[in-house]
User: Fold this.
Amino acid sequence: MSPLIVLVGPMGVGKSTVGQLLAERLGTGYRDTDDDIVAVQGRTIAEIFVEEGESAFRAIEKQAVREALAGHDGVLALGGGAVLDPDTRALLAGQRVVYLSMDVEEAVKRTGLNAARPLLAINPRKQWRELMEARRHLYEEVATAVVATDGRTPEEVTRAALDALELKEA
Assistant:
């Protein structure tokens, strides 16, 4: 068993919204590893970061991604930093992976780069740019297709993802 589609990309790009639309259009289930982590841990991702630090969170995330890749056959959305782990990137090889991309101005519009994002707490624009500089090549490395989300509605992004993967709606 493996997912029909895996979505990757930065925080706030719309992985959850687009993922749910894709699942609906394809007549399959939707799963988000961030939701899995919150359900298992009984606390928010921000709380895990504050209480245990990023490295502890990444270990939890790595396990959640491994379980989801092995146990879900629908649309799967990964957290923004999941691709940082080389083992996770290896597991994504051979999967249909869509990298949802956006520029910093779009990120500001969508998230307001608010403090609920633990990695963006201080100087959010600068930190978002730095995160993307560190991660963009990793998203591209695992991607089967890249779909820009800037200035597009979730429905337009969903259609573009289906077209890029040459998948037909159910």
Q: What stands out?
A: The radius of gyration is 15 Å. The first strand starts at residue 5 and ends at 8.
